[in-house]
Design a protein that fits this description.
The chain is an alpha/beta fold. It has 2 domains: 2-296, UDP-N-acetylmuramoyl-L-alanine:D-glutamate ligase (3-Layer(aba) Sandwich), CATH 3.40.1190; 313-434, Mur ligase, C-terminal domain (Protein-Tyrosine Phosphatase, Chain A, Alpha-Beta Complex). It is built from 16 helices and 16 strands. It has an 8-stranded mixed sheet with strand order 4-3-2-5-1-6-7-8, sandwiched between helices. A 5-stranded parallel sheet has the order 12-16-13-14-15, with helices on both faces. Strand 9 and strand 10 (232-239) form a beta hairpin. The longest helix is centred in the N-terminal third of the chain and has 17 residues, at 92-108. It is globular, with a radius of gyration of 21 Å.
Amino acid sequence: MIWEEALRRLYRLEWRGIKLDLERMRACLRVLGDPQQAFASVLVAGTNGKGSTASALASILSLSGTRTALYTSPHLLDFRERIRIDGRMDDRELLHVRLERDWAVWERFELSFFEAATVLAFARFRDAGVEVAVLEVGLGGRLDATNIVEPILSMITSLGMDHAQILGDTAAAIAVEKAGIFRAGVPAVTGGGPPGAPAAVEARAREVGACLYQRNRCVRVSGITPSVAAAGVRFRLAPRAGAPAGLTLPPDGLVIESALPGVHQAGNLTLAAMAAAMLRERGFNITDGQIVEGIRRVRWPGRLERPLPGSALIADVAHNREGARAVARHLAVVAPGREVRPVVGMVQGKDHAGFFRELGRVARSVWVVPLADQRAAPVETLAVSAEAAGLGVRPAGSVAEALGAALSGAREPDGPLVLLCGSFHLLEEGYRELGVSALERVWADGGDGPADDGGENSRG
């Protein structure tokens, strides 16, 4: 109970909002002995796919024998999901001790919630003797709290128009903000993006002197198919002729198989494999077999996840147009012709219209629900966007009510599918209603398959 009280105190910092200013972070960390300098760091920015990519890279590093930390945000059910060491959520008592020890310093510099959580993670990673930390960037890149580190590798997964009101109203402007994690002489691995974004990233890399490795120019991805064995995705990854030095992959390529569903994950996992191959050029003892196995064993909650074994429920935290498009493409492949019943709740400031247009590829109607979050979009706002996209709207008074109605008659293997999709807060409310608990570990300790629970979230 003491930890829960401390956590409530930490959440109260959310009233300070978002603070895009690294000077307070720098000063605070200096007082705390600069814990971020005790380990090497990899920064992972992007619009979509950051968590999956970061988790896959951390899995590879951990499997290679490196004591590896993973910092991600937001969490689904448990704050400790943000702070993992070798795949496992950090210890409550140790987190609580560190929080109490450093709280006065955080308050002296008036840290926001995300800044305090980031400083807490850095301190815990130092305490735990972490050798390398894979850090998911929160918002943008240039002024994000995670960008206080000096990375040995920078990554940008995908680029889109999320948070345009903060980061800029063009794809190029957003790309420049995310490329703010680049450093002179440090490798930068990047994926794709809308017109204007890749060119802006390339220009920023030249400006700062970063060594740029663009996915489509460096590697060839072929044979992307849903994996029956892993219930995820399978593909072959091979280097392109003339790829820049420093990226060592076997000439005949690697066959990658992952339990992460969705053919779009091939792009994220390719970036993780590229990053791992480049890190071994920087002294990390990583084999090709560990790249393959590290990717095979990783799980990542809330991404086309089936949280209840045997249920016709799929959950995904897609909350923008690009994410909804990936979900729709996946369902069109794995469940062609099946009725899809989306249950959607979102926050304000998102491209609701674009989101619903993409869902309209696989669904005819949608339940829209209110969320217990001050940033939640009103049901009426969501309904207007859904109707404009040609979807029938079924309002519901709560997530529980909508799930109950949608799951009625839904069944496997050929009945209706229920899609819980939208904000992290939506999945949190839905999972709590269904009795789903947080994953203690997101990958196995070795090569023997899932660690605790057969690859599914346990039910509490």
